[in-house]
Design a protein that fits this description.
Length: 160
């Protein structure tokens, strides 16, 4: 295993020609100038321990953003305005990595409207807003999860 370089042998000079002081040994902030293998391993272990939590937070942020955006679009459409509060993304109870997208807990007086607006009936053609939102939202959700994970993994260093 590699050993940490010793910086105590640095000469006790004042400022060099550039005006900066030489790197000094400082036990209080060890690893500030030199890190080495042990710090990489400890950071890797920290990421391994926190990874499930980081993924959960990143996915939930992305899904919340998606739901909020779709509800705004639904609220602007007169046909979907009454249904907007019921749009959600719910994790499948049987398969933890599967999500169901759609209208949930819709009151009985709005259920017929939800079916006729989305799938059409004798009086109106199908709109398909919910299906379009689910299909087109997949890429933006994926990008948001990636962005949130990159941010969260960088935050591990700052917080701990």
């Amino acid at each position: 295993m590699a050993s940490k370089p010793i910086v105590d042998d640095a000469p006790e000079s004042s400022l060099d020609a550039t005006g900066y002081k030489d790197a000094e040994s400082n036990n209080k902030h060890s690893g500030l100038y030199w890190t080495g293998i042990p710090s990489v391993v400890s950071f890797g272990n920290l990421l391994y321990q926190r990874f499930p939590e980081l993924v959960e937070v990143a996915v939930n942020k992305a899904l919340d953003k998606h739901v909020e955006e779709v509800r705004k679009v639904m609220f602007r459409d007169d046909k979907y305005r009454d249904l907007a509060p019921y749009y959600d993304v719910v994790q499948d109870e049987d398969e933890a990595d599967t999500f169901n997208v759609g209208l949930f807990d819709v009151p009985s007086h709005l259920q017929d409207k939800a079916l006729s607006v989305e799938y059409g009936d004798a009086n109106q053609p199908p709109q398909g807003l919910l299906r379009k939102a689910a299909l087109s939202g997949a890429q933006s959700i994926s990008d948001d999860v990636k962005s949130n994970m990159n941010w969260a993994m960088g935050e591990v260093v700052l917080r701990d």
